[in-house]
Structures are given as C-alpha cells and as structure tokens.
Task: inverse folding
C-alpha cells in the first residue's frame, strides 16, 4: 500500500503556481520523498526527490516540513502542459527491489 | 538516445493465447522493471531485473515470465492470456535499483477478450 496521502484533484490557473500537498506521516529516517507525474496515456515521468532539505530543479521545487511528515510540490508557473496526475512516493534510497509504489495521485487540471 | 521503447503499442489477444511484450533501453541501465496499470489500482510491479541474467518477482508476477539475456532488453511474456490481464503495461529502467530517477516507456495497451 502507498505510504502517502494526496488530494484526489486540484485546479490551477495557467501562469500561477501550483502547490500539490502530500502527507507521509509514517516516513522513516532513510526514506526519500519522490514526485513523478503521468500525462494522459504516457509513462510516468520523474520530477524531483528529497530527503529532508528543500530541493529545486528546472521543473519544480520540493518543500519538506521539518518533521518530514508532509511535503509540497510547487510548479512555479503552471502551463496547460502540466495537466497530469502527480504521484508522491516514499521509498528507501537504497531500495532492494527498486519498486516505486504509486498510489492514486493528484489529478492537476491547469485551466486557461 | 531513444530512451525506453516498448512494442507493440496496442495488442488484442484471445483468452489462452500467448505473446511477448518487448522492452528495450539504450542507456546502459542495469535495472529494468515491468509495471501494469489498471483503473483505480495505480501501477503495480510485475517483475524486475537488477542486471543481465538476474530477474525477480514483484507484487503481481502470476501469469507472466521474464528473462534478461542482455542489458538492453527485458521482454515480458504472457503464457496464457486471461481477461484479468487486460491492462496498460509500462517498462522502466534506471542506472541501478536505488537510483532516484526511473525512465518509463510509452506503454503497451493490452486487451484480452
């Protein structure tokens, strides 16, 4: 079972920041938070990951609370192409199986 | 680089038929895996491989076989197709099993009638 809880769906206006929350209250000390997204009918795509510090790359920012029980993915200037299902995943960095547990994710709809 | 490629894109089988879903990657990745995606179920791991000659079962392996004779290829075989295997199948690869970024293929949509 997924170890994360996400809202089922969210809307965002084009050009505005999209903030996608994720709860992972049972996260262990050696587990990372990963974010992937799946645009309709395509394979999932990696976005960003982090352990305890905030992270930023060319796609997004990841804010992890100090107690690590929740995090927020931020898309700073959402475009229509960011409409997708966003998955928050918790996994050990040194996974034995490499398995990613995809829950239901958050369907983000970016509107003009 | 082509990344991860999968063939075919679509396939319709009759119950009891067998077939092989192809997956190939050109990034020299050691780790490869197969997932299936069903409505309301998320993606579930079928089989995975940490290198050529090494495979292992995921959470839903029944009815599927895999082999890994080369680093590049990781085919998934359906031995005797059943309607319950109607799904979208994704292949993924990464440098190793602990790598944070896994690359997914475009998927194969399989219907078993």
Result:
């Amino acid at each position: 079972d997924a170890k994360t809880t996400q809202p089922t769906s969210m809307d965002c206006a084009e050009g505005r920041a999209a903030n996608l929350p994720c709860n992972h209250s049972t996260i262990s000390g050696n587990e990372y938070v990963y974010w992937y997204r799946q645009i309709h009918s395509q394979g999932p795509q990696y976005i960003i990951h982090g352990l305890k510090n905030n992270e930023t790359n060319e796609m997004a920012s990841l804010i992890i609370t100090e107690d690590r029980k929740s995090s927020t993915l931020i898309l700073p200037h959402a475009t229509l192409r960011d409409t997708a299902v966003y998955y928050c995943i918790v996994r050990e960095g040194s996974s034995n199986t490499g398995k990613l547990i995809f829950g239901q994710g958050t369907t983000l709809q970016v509107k003009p | 680089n082509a990344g991860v490629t999968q063939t075919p894109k679509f396939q319709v089988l009759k119950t009891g038929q067998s077939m092989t879903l192809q997956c190939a990657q050109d990034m020299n990745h050691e780790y490869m895996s197969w997932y299936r995606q069903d409505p309301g179920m998320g993606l579930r791991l079928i089989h995975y491989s940490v290198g050529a000659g090494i495979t292992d079962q995921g959470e839903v392996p029944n009815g599927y076989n895999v082999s890994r004779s080369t680093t590049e290829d990781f085919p998934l075989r359906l031995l005797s197709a059943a309607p319950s295997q109607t799904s979208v199948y994704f292949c993924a690869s990464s440098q190793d099993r602990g790598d944070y970024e896994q690359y997914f293929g475009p998927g194969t949509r399989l219907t078993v009638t």
About this structure: The beta strands of chain A are 9-13, 18-23, 31-38, 45-50, 55-56, 61-64, 70-75, 84-92, 106-111. DSSP finds no helices and nine strands in chain A.
